[in-house]
Design brief:
Enzyme class: ligase
Structural class: alpha/beta
Order of helices and strands: EEEEEHEEEEHEHEHEEHEHEHEHEEEEEH
Shape: globular
Number of helices: 9
GO molecular function, one term: carbamoyl-phosphate synthase (glutamine-hydrolyzing) activity
Pfam families: CPSase_sm_chain, GATase
Strand order of the largest sheet: 12-14-13-15-16-21-20-19-17-18
Number of strands: 21
Organism: Coptis chinensis
Largest sheet: 10 strands, mixed
Oligomer: single chain
Mean pLDDT: 89
EC number: 6.3.5.5
Length: 431
């Protein structure tokens, strides 16, 4: 059998297309024929069954609203459930991938091209990836970064994380923005029908699920590593006293520990279930409650631990830590429509009337009206007016609903670590 493909180029005078008031060129187009023959008489293969030389859609994302999104897979394969949230960061996809606060969530990146800087192990925020999956528009076919040690595709495969690309991320982001965060099922399994996947999606919700204990460390350990010298732009004038800080790991990011260590702190990291009595027996100068995933109302035992520590030593909490402090003070949390996820969230510091650009990742927020008298709202999110920070001077408590260490950036709120040092110093001097 032979296949013939022919393309004919007809002769035409280019002068016919030239403006009449100008001298036309003397060139004329040449005619020609391109022929292609494939002789398969000696090949026992049916060409009609040949596969396309490019990757075709082999994955589906089925959302609880019944919509089905076809895409191409990379990384791990299988079937995974999660809540779809979008992140508006322009850079730092590796830090996003390794942020434990994304446990149970499909992260939809609004930046269209992902993978072009590869993966650098020094930029990891945790040694494991806890997110449910990664949803992107364009997967870069090449990596250009002198620090890169692996490709994004190979990295996700090693971490057993599913990813899809060639999905309409603009339309998907609008859907989440308009309808709120949606539970979905991501699969590469052809045997599962859309109806089966839809039933699975509608039977799972992240609200009320304890996500903290699954990402926390299992035993206490000491942390010593600091951030590199280029980070030390905000430590001038801070009188470092070598404070001992007990850090509760609810899914703590490594750069938080590095920033505390850079301020001269001796850090003991403890699991989320570590008893308050054991912490107080260590006689720390302060206690830090970290970021973490999920619903703060799903971990009442952890709220009790926080409650027992408040007022005993200075306390600093961020993200989940902020929410748990609010709950321990008697405040209420509510689930946001689609949360705050990105490195470009505007926050106003009400104490000094300054706007900061912050890195945020949370789906729940504290209701300021439910907080007791004496609790001061120190920061608000300028996008929706939600509480982004609070302080309770009577109990030496401060907290933020975002990441002051902000890796990979911005660094507007890094001063918060210095404020924590000053609070511990004040208590230590008065003792």
């Amino acid at each position: 059998m032979a296949i013939k493909v022919a393309m004919d180029f007809k002769l035409r005078n280019l002068s016919n297309d030239w403006p009449s008031k100008r001298t036309p060129p003397t060139k004329t187009a040449r005619s020609g024929v391109i022929k292609c023959f494939v002789n398969s008489s000696n090949v026992n293969t049916d060409l009609s069954l040949a596969e396309a030389p490019w990757k075709v859609a082999d994955a589906r994302l089925v959302l609880e609203d019944g919509s089905v999104w076809k895409a191409k897979s990379f990384g791990a394969s299988g079937t995974q459930v999660g809540e779809v949230v979008f992140n508006t960061s322009m850079t730092g996809y590796q830090e996003i991938l390794t942020d434990p606060s994304y446990a149970g969530q499909f992260v939809l990146l609004t930046n269209p091209q992902i993978g072009n800087t590869g993966v650098t192990f020094d930029d990891e925020e945790a040694k494991e990836c806890f997110l449910a999956g990664l949803l992107i528009r364009n997967l870069s076919i090449s990596t250009s970064n002198w620090r890169s040690s692996d490709s994004l595709v190979d990295y996700l495969a090693k971490k057993n994380i599913m990813g899809i690309y060639d999905v309409d991320t603009r339309a998907l982001t609008r859907k989440v923005r308009d309808n709120g965060s949606l539970t979905g099922i991501l699969t590469t399994e052809k045997s599962k029908t859309d109806e089966e996947l839809l039933e699975m999606a509608r039977s799972w919700h992240i609200a009320g699920v304890d996500m903290i204990h699954g990402v926390s460390c299992k035993a206490p350990y000491e942390w010593k590593d600091e951030t590199d010298s280029e980070w030390e732009f905000n430590c001038k004038g801070i009188d470092e006293k070598g404070f001992h800080v007990v850090a509760y790991d609810f899914g703590i990011k490594l750069n938080i520990l590095k920033r505390l260590a850079s301020h001269g702190c001796k850090i003991t990291v403890v699991p989320s279930t570590w008893p308050a009595s054991e912490t107080l027996m260590m006689k720390p100068d302060g206690v830090f409650f970290s970021n973490g995933p999920g619903d703060p109302s799903a971990v009442p035992d952890t709220v009790e631990i926080v409650k027992e520590i408040l007022g005993k030593v200075p306390v600093f909490g961020i993200c989940m830590g902020h929410q748990l402090i609010g709950r321990a003070l008697g405040g209420k949390c509510f689930k946001m429509k689609y949360g705050h996820h990105g490195g470009n969230q505007p926050v106003r510091n009400l104490r000094i009337n300054r706007v900061e650009i912050s890195s945020q990742n949370h789906n729940f927020a504290i209701d300021p009206a439910s907080l007791p008298e004496g609790v001061e709202v120190t920061h608000i999110n300028l996008n929706d007016g939600t509480c982004a920070g609070m302080a309770f001077p009577a109990l030496n408590v401060m907290s933020l609903q975002y990441h002051p260490e902000a890796s990979p950036g911005p660094h507007d709120s890094d001063y918060a670590f210095g404020e924590f040092m000053q609070m511990m110093a004040k208590i230590k001097l008065s003792a």
